[in-house]
């Protein structure tokens, strides 16, 4: 039995490897996952939430370059390596975009950057505030590959950090939906009768409420925040899993291997866990991939409505909300870039779901 199971797994794996778009989507999802985890390593702006604002250079086009002066702060914040790696640097320094500068008599004279042909303010600062009284390491040319948003923040950094919310909400929401859905579906399908009728009533009531409306209600009940959105999305996605599991268990619970397990005196919990669930996981895996995509879209919708991840946290949906009106103002990339990120990640999960469906289909 074990040899046969392994052979089926190997056959499914071989079929999956032959699906170009499935394999491509798998590696793309892995790439986005790594970017999500180590976003602050890749982001040019590694401050917390990539939230360094420079209003004087707001809404600049991709590839924009400017000379950036960093004014060091006397505040010394003790921050651990892993805290900085995964949650960003607690930056107390002040960054100032400048157009020109010169040093005279231990004084740094610089002119702030101003766009649209305006003249920036001229300011002075003592070079004694810089370590070793040297300003060379604190004045650098900075390139914004994706341009800047309406607050003058680096758009590339915000996109990279924003991937974390969209990616991990899929994992948390799918995990919650699997735990609740498999439990409820197993009880309904295996025991039937009043148990099935009661659980199906709960499923139908939950199913009748629009998903976005239910998520909004749960979010308002739990409060606005990061984890509240994750939980709210997960609590609305278990219904599909429960219906699939229930239907699969109804179709297999009278099969010979289940009857044999009952004859050997195994309890119901063991029969469900050890004998039934391993044989019905193929459609559950496929629907989980679809739920990943749905969770990302729901979170983006919530952030667009302003009840998802709250500022200053970076979120693709919130970025679209902040800049959708720029589409008609000649700077559509501010909304299109995060929109393409959402589209590509959702497409990857849908393609890998289709590839898994084909690979796990024993009829093909």
Description:
The protein has 364 residues and is α+β, with helices and mostly antiparallel strands. It folds into two domains: 2-34 and 156-360, MetI-like fold (Orthogonal Bundle); 65-150, no CATH class. The protein is 59% helix and 10% strand. It has 14 helices and five strands. It has a five-stranded antiparallel β-sheet, with no helix packed on it. Helix 5 runs antiparallel to helix 6 (193-208). The chain is elongated and about 95 Å long.
In the CATH classification, which architecture of the largest domain applies? Orthogonal Bundle
Determine the number of helices (DSSP H or I, runs of at least 4 residues). 14
The general outline is elongated
Name the CATH homologous superfamily of the largest domain. Answer: MetI-like
Poorly predicted runs: none
How far apart the termini lie comes to 21 Å
State the CATH class of the largest domain: Mainly Alpha
Strand order of the largest sheet: 4-3-2-1-5
Strand content: 5-15%
Mean pLDDT: 87
Spell the H/E element sequence: HHHEHEEEEHHHHHHHHHH
CATH topology value of the largest domain: MetI-like fold
Q: What is the number of E strands?
A: 5
Q: Name the structural class.
A: alpha+beta
> What fraction, in percent, of the residue positions are helical?
55-70%
Number of domains: 2
Radius of gyration from the alpha-carbon trace, in angstroms: 27 Å
For the report, how would you describe the main beta sheet? 5 strands, antiparallel
């Amino acid at each position: 039995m074990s040899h046969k199971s392994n052979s089926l797994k190997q056959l499914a794996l071989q079929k999956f490897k032959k699906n170009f778009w499935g394999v491509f989507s798998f590696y793309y999802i892995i790439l986005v996952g790594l970017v999500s985890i180590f976003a602050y390593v890749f982001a040019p702006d590694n401050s917390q939430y990539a939230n360094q604002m420079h209003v004087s250079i707001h809404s600049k086009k991709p590839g924009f370059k400017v000379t950036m002066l960093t004014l060091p702060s006397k505040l010394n914040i003790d921050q651990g390596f892993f805290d900085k790696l995964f949650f960003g640097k607690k930056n107390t320094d002040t960054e100032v975009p400048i157009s020109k500068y010169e040093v005279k008599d231990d004084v740094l004279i610089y002119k702030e950057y101003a766009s649209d042909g305006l003249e920036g303010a001229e300011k002075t600062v003592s070079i004694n505030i810089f370590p070793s009284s040297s300003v060379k390491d604190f004045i650098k040319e900075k390139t914004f590959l994706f341009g800047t948003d309406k607050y003058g923040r680096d758009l590339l950094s915000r996109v990279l950090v924003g991937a974390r919310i969209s990616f991990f909400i899929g994992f948390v929401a799918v995990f919650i939906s699997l735990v609740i859905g498999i439990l409820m579906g197993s009880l309904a399908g295996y025991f039937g009768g009043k148990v099935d009728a009661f659980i199906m009533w709960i499923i139908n009531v939950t199913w009748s409420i629009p998903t976005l409306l239910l998520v909004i209600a749960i979010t308002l009940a739990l409060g606005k925040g990061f984890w509240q959105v994750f939980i709210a999305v997960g609590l609305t996605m278990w219904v599909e899993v429960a219906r699939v599991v229930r239907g699969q268990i109804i179709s297999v619970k009278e099969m010979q291997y289940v009857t044999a397990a009952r004859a050997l005196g195994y309890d119901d919990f063991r029969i469900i866990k050890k004998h039934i669930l391993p044989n019905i996981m193929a459609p559950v895996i496929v629907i989980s991939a679809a739920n990943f995509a749905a969770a990302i879209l729901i979170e983006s919708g919530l952030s667009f409505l302003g009840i998802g991840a709250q500022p200053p946290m970076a979120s693709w949906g919130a970025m679209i909300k902040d800049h959708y009106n720029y589409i008609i103002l000649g700077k559509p990339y501010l909304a299109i870039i995060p929109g393409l990120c959402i589209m590509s990640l959702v497409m990857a999960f849908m393609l890998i779901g289709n590839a898994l469906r084909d690979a796990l289909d024993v009829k093909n």
